[in-house]
Write a structure and sequence with these properties.
This protein is mainly beta. Helix content is 4%, strand content 58%. A hairpin with a 4-residue loop joins strand 22 and strand 23.
């Protein structure tokens, strides 16, 4: 409970901290969000939610959703595969699994369409957005699907039926960065039919410098995306929105950092990175291929005002994507551990809901939701190819690999059907009651799940066995069906116009999952039960000093069951999915916005966590009492914006920093694969000509060029620890023309 007391103290101190200054005739702008499936002022939403507007997004210069941590407390990024994965941790709820068939516990939505699978989530790019919403805490009523940690909403700009409008941005930066972004909208038929098209392009060389002759640098960027909205006002009460979108990514794969933990070196080859004089962002990888990813889809939305007080909304979507990633996971000039990932996904979803807007005390959101995705995945791990070809094969001793390639293939189908209702009742002028329920039925099945053994270099077996890969297990076909009733009960009290206090109890669940990393036998083809979370949360939302100071805070207690994580044996390489039977999380958040004067804005966010596995036994070892994975005790984000004029030039300066506290990347809490606390500082300056449509901006990220990791694994069986690096200092300049 220490973090709860700290959070409460932080809220109290935050209220006393601002020093009285000259009164300015300005207020913090109102931000309207749709976190509860209807438009509301963020200060009237009784949950911990952070929203960032288009203007703030421009100042932050975010490229993808992994960078959301720059403005939301208690949110961290811990992707194992660099650009290939979007894995977020919210309040210590995360996942440690990089299989292509998995979906994380933080639900990600683009224009209210679920992007759960790794390929769909990683394919999202943040361009031409109206705002981003980060909902912290279980979202088991209105969102439901895999949202034990929270939900992220990306809302793009839509046609506004206000004539023609658009912009074009061109930019350049270090590591050969080139970028372009733009949008244009216009009415086709006055007040009846309009469109908005937007695009984004970013290309940059890899920031992991490959010192091996003839091999390209790793961890590069090469992507483009496009989106087209076609909006129709079919009548005064019926609107339709058709959206088409596509993204492509083709760039050097992530550069793994391998650091020997054995005097025999990486892969027991005698190769010691410490002897090579390599810096943190240098490698000698003998495999430097590109990651290729494409993702496209279409959605159709209808909003029908059935009456002055009731609206029917339908959102239908179809998405498909595929990804191929060929990685060097040993970071050495030897073929020690190489991985090939290939996956394809198709997803259809349907959300149908009724939203009331009564003048009476009772209002509701009620709906039906369906989503189905099918993943076809093939993964190959190539072990110790340096030590053998066809003649020296590892099935003689399956516990010590020599020149082996293990491949698995699987098809997974997930189907989810839910019915939900979320109600708000105004008990009096000051008191409101929130009650919500969601019933979910999930079916998760695998078919044609098979494993094969072949030579690490040639992909075939010993000629004595006919040259074809040798079956190891399968085909396996199995299916599980789960159902869950989750809900929320909350009470809100408004003692004053600009003050709300709330408390709630909520539950949520994350569907059970199949292990997508079975290679050595069908004993690895295991299923883990759903995650379940029960949460108490108490919060306050306030505006003080005539609307120039905004303080929002929350404290929470979680009872967390069956957290899913990958159980990786560092000696044999065997992998199964496992669950932590019981865990507890407590903590708090404080967010403060202060306008001491008209042209100066100060932002502060503080997240505090106290996490513990209450009951966890792994491989016969009792790990109860350890900290949760990717759950730093302290998380701070701070920013300052200052606007002023220089003659005919308007200047906007911004500096922001994010502190991420100590965190572990293993349930064993191994210090060798942990990350100490660190700060990342960013800055941006924008110069705009008054009454002119031109602006020029300069920016820098990771100003102090800090070295840090975002995930890690213990690969002692291969003589090293695996780390995923964070990006070094990057900087650039851009110019924007608005028309």
């Amino acid at each position: 409970m220490l973090s709860i007391r700290m959070a409460l103290s932080g809220i109290a101190l935050g209220m006393l901290a601002p020093v009285l200054s000259a009164v300015a005739d300005n207020r913090i702008e109102e931000i309207v969000v749709t976190a509860q499936k209807k438009a509301s002022d963020i200060q009237d939403v009784p949950l911990s939610v952070t929203a960032i507007t288009a203007r703030q997004l421009d100042a932050l210069k975010l490229r993808d959703a992994s960078q959301i941590v720059a403005f939301a407390p208690n949110v961290t990024f811990n992707g194992t595969g660099g650009e290939n994965q979007l894995v977020l941790s919210v309040r210590g709820v995360s996942m440690q699994d990089y299989a292509p068939n998995q979906a994380g516990p933080v639900a990600v939505y683009a224009d209210e369409i679920y992007r759960g699978n790794q390929v769909l989530a990683a394919g999202m790019q943040m361009f031409d957005l109206e705002r981003v919403e980060v909902l912290r805490g279980p979202q088991g009523t209105l969102y439901g699907r895999n949202s034990t940690g929270g939900a992220i909403n990306l809302i793009s700009n839509k046609p506004r039926f206000e004539g023609q409008d658009g912009y074009l941005t061109l930019g350049a930066g270090n590591y050969g960065r080139q970028e372009a972004e733009g949008a244009y909208e216009s009415e086709i038929v006055d007040d009846r039919l309009a469109f908005r098209g937007a695009f984004s392009y970013v290309d940059a060389d890899g920031y992991v410098e490959n010192q091996l002759t003839g091999e390209q640098d790793l961890s590069g960027i090469g992507e483009w995306g496009a989106r087209l909205h076609l909006a129709a006002r079919l009548s005064n009460t019926f609107d339709a929105l058709l959206t088409l979108y596509r993204t492509e990514y083709d760039a050097p794969v992530y550069g793994a950092l391998a650091v020997e933990n054995n005097p025999a070196g990486i892969g027991f080859t005698g190769y010691l990175r410490s002897d090579r004089g390599l810096t943190f962002h240098e490698t000698e990888a003998d495999r430097a291929d590109d990651t290729e990813r494409e993702y496209q889809g279409v959605s159709l939305r209808f909003d029908w005002e059935l009456s002055d007080t009731l609206t029917l909304t339908s959102i239908t979507s179809y998405d498909e994507g595929e990804q191929v990633s060929l990685a060097d996971d040993d970071g050495s000039p030897f073929e020690i551990f190489h991985s090939d990932y290939s996956s394809e996904i198709e997803q259809v979803s349907q959300d149908l809901r009724l939203v009331s807007n009564n003048s009476s005390p009772f209002n509701y959101v009620a709906g039906l939701y369906y989503v189905d995705d099918q993943v076809d995945a093939t993964t190959t791990f190539r072990y110790l190819g340096e030590f053998g070809g066809v003649a020296n094969f590892c099935f003689d001793d399956p516990l010590f690999f020599i020149g082996c390639a293990y491949t698995n293939e699987l098809t997974q189908d997930r189907e989810s059907l839910a019915a939900y209702i979320h109600t708000t009742t105004e008990l009096s002028e000051r008191w409101s009651l929130t009650v919500g329920l969601r019933y979910t039925d999930d079916t998760v099945g695998v078919s044609d799940y098979s494993g094969f053994l072949s030579d690490a270099l040639t992909g075939v077996s010993d000629p004595l066995f006919g040259g074809a890969p040798i079956p190891v297990f399968g085909p396996v076909a199995d299916e599980r069906e789960e159902n869950d009733l989750s809900g929320k009960v909350g009470l809100e009290f408004r003692p004053a116009e600009d003050l709300m206090v709330y408390g709630s109890f909520s539950t949520a669940y994350r569907a059970g999952a199949w292990n997508g990393q079975a290679f050595f036998g069908d004993f690895e083809v295991n299923y883990v039960p759903p995650e379940e979370v029960e949460t108490w949360e108490f919060g306050v939302k306030s505006q003080l000093l005539d609307g120039r100071l905004q303080i929002n805070g929350a404290v929470f207690i979680y009872d967390y069951k069956n957290q899913q994580f990958l159980d990786f044996d560092p000696l044999t390489g065997a992998q199964t999915l496992a669950s932590a039977e019981e865990a507890s999380i407590s903590g708090g958040e404080l967010e403060m916005v202060y306008l001491p004067m008209e042209n100066l804005t100060l932002n502060l966010g503080i997240g505090l966590l106290d996490t513990e596995y209450d009951q966890l036994v792994k491989s016969g070892v009792d790990l109860s009492g350890n900290k949760l994975i990717a759950a730093p005790e302290t998380n701070i984000n701070a920013a300052i914006d200052y606007d002023f004029s220089l003659g005919a030039i308007e200047v906007r300066l911004r500096a922001d920093g994010v502190y991420t506290g100590d965190q572990f990347y293993s349930v064993e809490n191994l210090e060798t694969i942990a990350q100490d606390g660190y700060w990342l500082w960013n800055a941006r300056a924008i110069f705009s000509a008054m009454d002119k449509p031109f602006s020029v901006g300069v920016w820098v990220k990771n100003l102090t060029d800090d070295e840090y990791i975002v995930n890690a694994f213990d690969l002692s069986g291969f003589g090293y620890n695996y780390y995923q690096r964070g990006a070094p200092r990057t900087y650039g300049i851009d110019a924007t023309w608005r028309f």
